[in-house]
Amino acid sequence: MAKMKAAILVAPGRIVLDDKPIPDVGPLDALVRITTTTICGTDVHILKGEYPVAPGLTIGHEPVGVIEKLGAAVRGYSEGQRVITGAITPSGWSNACLCGTCSQDGAGTRHGWKAMGGWKLGNTIDGCQAEYVLIPDAMANLARVPDGLTDEQVLMCPDIMSTGFGGAESAGIRLGDVVAVFAQGPIGLCATVGAKLCGASLVIGVDRLPDRLRIAGLMGADHVIDSSQVDPVEEIMRLTGGRGVDVAIEALGTQSTFEGCLRVLRPGGTLSSLGVYSTDLTIPLSAFAAGLGDHRIVSTLCPGGKERMRRLMSMIASKRVDLGAMVTHRFKLDDIEAAYALFSEQRDGVLKVAITP
Amino acid sequence: MAKMKAAILVAPGRIVLDDKPIPDVGPLDALVRITTTTICGTDVHILKGEYPVAPGLTIGHEPVGVIEKLGAAVRGYSEGQRVITGAITPSGWSNACLCGTCSQDGAGTRHGWKAMGGWKLGNTIDGCQAEYVLIPDAMANLARVPDGLTDEQVLMCPDIMSTGFGGAESAGIRLGDVVAVFAQGPIGLCATVGAKLCGASLVIGVDRLPDRLRIAGLMGADHVIDSSQVDPVEEIMRLTGGRGVDVAIEALGTQSTFEGCLRVLRPGGTLSSLGVYSTDLTIPLSAFAAGLGDHRIVSTLCPGGKERMRRLMSMIASKRVDLGAMVTHRFKLDDIEAAYALFSEQRDGVLKVAITP
Amino acid sequence: MAKMKAAILVAPGRIVLDDKPIPDVGPLDALVRITTTTICGTDVHILKGEYPVAPGLTIGHEPVGVIEKLGAAVRGYSEGQRVITGAITPSGWSNACLCGTCSQDGAGTRHGWKAMGGWKLGNTIDGCQAEYVLIPDAMANLARVPDGLTDEQVLMCPDIMSTGFGGAESAGIRLGDVVAVFAQGPIGLCATVGAKLCGASLVIGVDRLPDRLRIAGLMGADHVIDSSQVDPVEEIMRLTGGRGVDVAIEALGTQSTFEGCLRVLRPGGTLSSLGVYSTDLTIPLSAFAAGLGDHRIVSTLCPGGKERMRRLMSMIASKRVDLGAMVTHRFKLDDIEAAYALFSEQRDGVLKVAITP
Amino acid sequence: MAKMKAAILVAPGRIVLDDKPIPDVGPLDALVRITTTTICGTDVHILKGEYPVAPGLTIGHEPVGVIEKLGAAVRGYSEGQRVITGAITPSGWSNACLCGTCSQDGAGTRHGWKAMGGWKLGNTIDGCQAEYVLIPDAMANLARVPDGLTDEQVLMCPDIMSTGFGGAESAGIRLGDVVAVFAQGPIGLCATVGAKLCGASLVIGVDRLPDRLRIAGLMGADHVIDSSQVDPVEEIMRLTGGRGVDVAIEALGTQSTFEGCLRVLRPGGTLSSLGVYSTDLTIPLSAFAAGLGDHRIVSTLCPGGKERMRRLMSMIASKRVDLGAMVTHRFKLDDIEAAYALFSEQRDGVLKVAITP
Description:
CATH topology of the largest domain in chain A: Quinone Oxidoreductase, Chain A, domain 1
Shape of chain A: globular
Number of helices of chain A: 11
CATH architecture of the largest domain in chain A: Alpha-Beta Complex
Strand order of the largest sheet of chain A: 10-9-8-11-12-14
Helix content of chain A: 25-40%
Number of domains of chain A: 2
CATH superfamily of the largest domain in chain A: Medium-chain alcohol dehydrogenases, catalytic domain
Oligomer: homotetramer
Number of strands of chain A: 16
CATH class of the largest domain in chain A: Alpha Beta
Structural class of chain A: alpha/beta
Radius of gyration of chain A: 20 Å
Mean pLDDT of chain A: 94
Low-confidence stretches of chain A: 107-113
Largest interface: A-B, 51 and 51 residues
Largest sheet of chain A: 6 strands, parallel
C-alpha cells in the first residue's frame, strides 16, 4: 500500500510528520495531491489540546492541490485539474444544506443537524497537512482554480477569507455603515477587508499588537486602535460622536472582545461573532439595553462548498482583493513541526505560513 | 386650567390616581381622550421601582381613545375620530426612523440614536392611564380604528400584540419551522399566535402555570410543556427527535428562559428575545457551540407607528386573530389602584385588565 | 429484463400507457415503486405539444411511493420506506444549489446554470406516471413520509403545494399584507392558502369559474371576485379603498392576469409570478409607474429537495393545512388515458386526480 | 415681498430664469439658500414636455445650500448650517414611510400611497434651481454637510448617487457577483460604482458613447462594451463563459436596454431597473424562461431622507468614493438656460453641470 507523509496529532501537545497510507477513493470522493496548505489558529487549539480531535488524525483544512483520482460516481471533473476546497466540506444533500445552512451539514447525525457538522477535514476525517487528502462529496466541494492564479493567491480562500468575509456578510452591512473589528489577526484582517467590500464607509480596527494594526491600516482600516494603550470602547464612541457603530465584528473569541463589541453597538446594531470561544460568555445588562435595544448577535462558521470558493477566487482574479501579503513565512511539509512552533508562538510577525510538500 | 384624573407614580411602590392639568397641545401633538387602556408588565416594574421613571409621571402606554384636539401643524385627521397609538411613538423623522429602526428613535439625543428612545409614553413623557393623553408626532402615530372594532378588540395592539408578533417576525420564521416559546404570559401568548401566523408548522409553549398553558393550547400552541414538572429542554429535544427548534422565543426576561431557548436551538437557528432582563445574561459555551453554530440572537422592542397599528388592526378586522380572551378583568379608572394590585400579584388568573375612564 | 407500465408521450397529442424496462439503478439513484401520483397542468401542456419533451419519455413529476432499491453510494435510507420527492430534483452539489437556487440546478450545463435545469422528472428524464421511477441524486431528494399520513394527503407536496406556497414566500409577505391571487386553479388555490399561512391579513381570490371561487372561499380567501362578471382591477381597488395590494400573485400564465396583478399593486408592492407563459408579456407603462414605483416582479419555479418536502409534510401532519379536498377524482394507472382526458378538458369540476398503479 | 431668481417652466420646451417671491416658511418647513445645484436628466424630460409638471413651477431637485430660516415647529437645526436634502423628500410620518417605502410617500393621497409621491421638489412643489428653496418636512430631510466637504463633492448625493447606488442595493448584490450595467450616463456610472461598493467581483459597463465607456473604466468597470460596435448580450455571455450575470442594472429607460438586461441574466438572477421609461415594456418569453427562471425584476426610485444623505456623504468623507470627476461644466444661475442647452444636447462630453447662484 502506497504511503504518504502527513502531520498527525499523536497526543495533545504533539503534532508529528509521519507516514500514512494514501487513502482509498470511495465513489463520491476525490483524492487531491496537495501542492500548498497552511496552518490555522484552530490547528493550534488542536495542538494544545484545547479542541479535542481523535489521536492519529491528520490535521489541516486549507487545501490547494491537484486532482489525483476521482471516485466512480464523480462527474464534471478530470484528473490533473488544479483545485481548492473549503475548510468546510458540505455534502450538498443534507437537510442542513438544503435549508441554507451548509456549514452545519452533518451527514452522520439524525436529520442531518449538528453544530459544526460541516467541518470534517482535520476534525472528523483526515486533513490536508499531508501529501494527499481525500475530499468527501467531491462534486459539492472541488473548485477549480482559475488560470493565472498562484497557489499562494488562493491559499486564504478555504478558511480565513471565507470566514472573515462571512462575518461581514452575516452582519448585513449596508452602504454607509460604520464597522468596528475587534482583533486584527488573520481572521480579523479578512473581516476588515470584507467589511469594506460590503460597503462600510468606515472600518475601525482594534488590536494590541502594533504590527497587526500597521497591516490593518495597509489592508484598509480607516482607523486603528491599540487596545493596549487606550480603552477601545471609549475611543470608538468618541470617533463616532457618541453614536456607536452599526456593526461590530468579534474576531478573537474572548469575553473582552465580545463585550467590547456589544458596548460600542448602536441601538439596532449587529454584533457579528467569528471567534472560537473557550469559556461561557456574559452579556452585560446595560450593553444589551436590558433586551430592548433591537440588537442582533450572529455567529458564523466558515462558509464552504465549491460555489463559495469560486466566488472568492473570482474576487482575487479581478483584483478586488489581494491577501498575498498575509503569507509571511514559507516551509516545506518536512519542516511542518518548525512551522507549528513559529505559528503557535506568533514569532517574527507571522500571519500565515505556506506549507508545500 | 382644566383638570383630569391620571395614574401617577409618586414614589417606588406607589401609583395613585390624582388630578393633573389637561396638557397643552403643541403644533405636532394630538390630545386624545382615553376610552380604554390597560396595565402592562412593564408598568409593574415601574411600580416596584425596578425600572426607574421620574416621580410625578403619568403611567401607561396602551391608549385607545378619541381625538380631542389636534396640533396646529397636524394634517390628515379630524377631531372625534377613534384612534389608537403604539406604545412606541416614533417621530418618523429621526435618523433611527429613517434607517428602519423606528423603535430606537430618540429625538433628544445626538444623531437620534438611543436604545428605547422610541418609548416615550409613560416613560419619558406622561402616559395614558388618565382621562387624556398627549401624543407626540401625531401624524406618525395616530391610527384610526376600523369601524366595527370595539375598544377591547384593539386594546392589545399598542404593545403586547405588536411585541409578541414582532418576536416572531424578527426571527424570520419560515413555512414549516418548529418554534418554541418560553413563557406564556401575555407577551408569550402573542408570540405563540404570531409564530403560527408567520407559518410555523409546530409551536411549543412552555410555562410553569397550568392556567397559562391551557390558554396557550386554546390560542394555538401544538404542544405545551409545564416546566414546573419536566425539563423543557429535554422535552423539546425529545419532541423534535433530537433536532432542536428552528426558532426559540424568549418572553419572560430571565437567565433560565434565555438559556433554555439557546439549548433547544438547532445549528443555524434563531433565538428571538422579547423579555426585559434585570440581570446580566450568560451564554453557555456548549449551547452556543463555542461560537461556531451559525446561531442568531435577536432582540425586539415593540414596533410602533400608525402603519404598524393599521396592520395589526387589519388582522383583527379580518378575523385572522382574536385576542379578546386575554381581557380577563375590567376596572374603572377610579379603581386603577385595585387593578394594579390584582395585576401585579397575578391573582384570579388575570392576563390583561381593561381600564375605562 | 423486467418490465413496468408507464404513461409515455409518443407524439404531441398522444400519451399512452405502455411497457418499458424497469430502469437500472446507478450509484446515486433510488428506484421508487409508485403508489400514488397525479397529473399536472404542465403535463397537459406536454400532451398538447405546447411544451416539448422527447418522444418516448415517461411523463409525471409528482411521486408518492416506496423505496424499491437504493444505489450503491446512497446512505441514510432503507428499502421499503415510504417517500415522496419534489417535482424538482436538485442534485445538491451544483453551483446553482450551493448558491441558493436549487430549482435552477442543471447538472449537465457549464457552470451548472440553466433555467429549469432542476426539473428533470418527466422533462429530461423518465417521470413517475408509471409503476416505478428512478430518482436521481437520491440523498438530496428522498423525503420520508411521516407515519400517519396517507398518500393522498401528501400528493400535493411535490408540485402544486410547493409552487403555490413558494409564490407567497418569494413575495416576502409580511403580517398584515393584502394579497390578491389571480386565478384559482390548483396552483392559485395553494397560493391562496400559502398567502394566509405567511400572515396576509386579507386574501382576494380572482377566477372566472364559480366552482373554483367557491373552493377558494372554503380554502380561506376572504373575498372572491368573478372576473367574468366584474373587472377585477376595479373591484380590488375598491376593496382596498384605492390603496392597492401589497402583493399580487399570478397563477395562470396569461397577459391578462399578469397585467391585472401589476395594475392592482401599490407602489412598493410585489408581483409574484407562478404561471407558465406561452407568449411575450407586456408591462404597461402606467401600471409600472414608468419604472419609478419601487415595484418588484419575482418568478418562482417549484422549490424541491427533501428538506422542502419534509417541511411541507410537517405542515400537513400538524394540521396547518389540509389539501385533501383538492383530490376530486381517482383513477387506476391502467386508466390514465381517461384521466388525462378528464383533466385536460377540466370536466366535472376536476381539480386534481389521484392515480394509483 | 422679497423676490428671488428661479428657473421656471413656462411651457413645454421653455425653462426661463425669472423672479418669484421668496416663499413663506410653514411650521414644518425650512427655507434653504441654494449655494450649488445641478440639472438632472429628468429635468430635460420636463423641459421637453415628456414628463408633465404644472407651468410656472420652479424646476430642480438637487439642492446644496445653507439654512436661511426654520419653521416654528422644526427642532434640531440652526440657521446658517450647510445642508443638502435628497431629491425625494419623504415626510417620515406617512404610512408609506413607516412601511419602509419612503420614496413612495405621498402625503396628499388616501392612506398615503401613490407612486413617486415622495418626489416633490421640482415635481409637485417648487424646486431648487433658484436662489432659495422651501424644504417640506424639514426634520426628515435636512442633512448637515460634514466639515471639509465642498458643495461639488456632495452635489451628486441628492439624486444620481442615491439612485445609482440604490440600484445596486435593491439588487441584493452579494460578494462575488458578476454585474452588468446597461448605459453609462450619470446614473449608470453611479450604479457601476455602487455595484463595486456592494461587493461585485466583476462589473461590465455597456454604452454607445466611447467617452462614457472611458469614464466607466476610470470609475471601476472591469470590462466595457461599446454596444454600437458589438452585440452586448453576446459579448456578456462570452465574457461569463455562457453563465450570464447575477445582476443586470438598467440605467437608461428603453426597451433595448431592459431586454438586454433580461437576456444576460442567469437563472435566479436579478434585473434592477433604474431608468424612466416612456413606453410599455416587453418581456420576451425566452428571456424570462416562460416564467420559470426564478428571475427578479426590481425597480428603484431614488432613496431620500436625511439618514440616506448622511450615509452617502459619509462615504465621500471617508474617500470610499469620489464623484467629483462627474462635474464637467460650471454655470452661474443667471446662465442656467445655457446650461440646459448644453446638458440637453449632451454637448462637449457633459456629464453633470454645477449651477451656482
